[in-house]
Amino acid sequence: MITLYGFGAGFGLPEISSFVTKTEVQLKMAGLAYRKERAMPPASPKGQLPYIDDDGERIADSTFIRVHIERKYGFDFDAGLDQRARAQAWAFERMIEHHVYWALVGARWVDPDNFAKGPTHFFDGAPEHLRDKLREDAQFRVAENYLLSGLGRHAPDDDIVLAVRSLLALSVQLGDRPYLMGEQPCGLDATAFGALAGILTPFFNSKLREKAEEFANLTGYVDRMMLEYYPDFAWTVQPQAA
To answer: For residues 196 and 189, is the Cβ–Cβ distance under 8 A?
Structure first.
């Protein structure tokens, strides 16, 4: 039995982390039985979530977990794609995880209202005399990483302009197809779904979410993926732009 370690449900999502969501959807795609446990990043071999325990073997990082599934269980997440399409899927995945993801981080952690509504509560269980310091330190570290990512170096709203370029690329790639690479889901869809659902959750208000809602095919895509992979979760269907 595989054990998947993640943050758990929250922020209007079945899983708080887009990377944990990616791995969970890929486990579902592969048809592998698993159980899910809550954890915090320090418990992971790499200090980040997700990680899995597969019969005593611990693997961290969503991309390396995918590699493990493909090697051990012989499941090809990109079955049906030729070499060019596989290369394109990899490029889109890197764009999502190294660009779109950081826009999501900025909306959640750097925006003071959203931080107070969401991430600050990660520390509610800490001793009362340490909570404020832990929250301050965590927000500072995330903001520093946001700066290092490149997006945080721009003036307010300029980071959104850049993020929208990536959302437009995803919207064009999707077109009127059910999945990003065609008629069948592939590994990229798990990555895209995790990030887009994180942006579109109605729990947070942000300019990034407002811009994402303008892409009708992306909002419809997230709604379909949520119904397919989390059918029992009470997801709020996103508004469809004209």
So the answer is: no
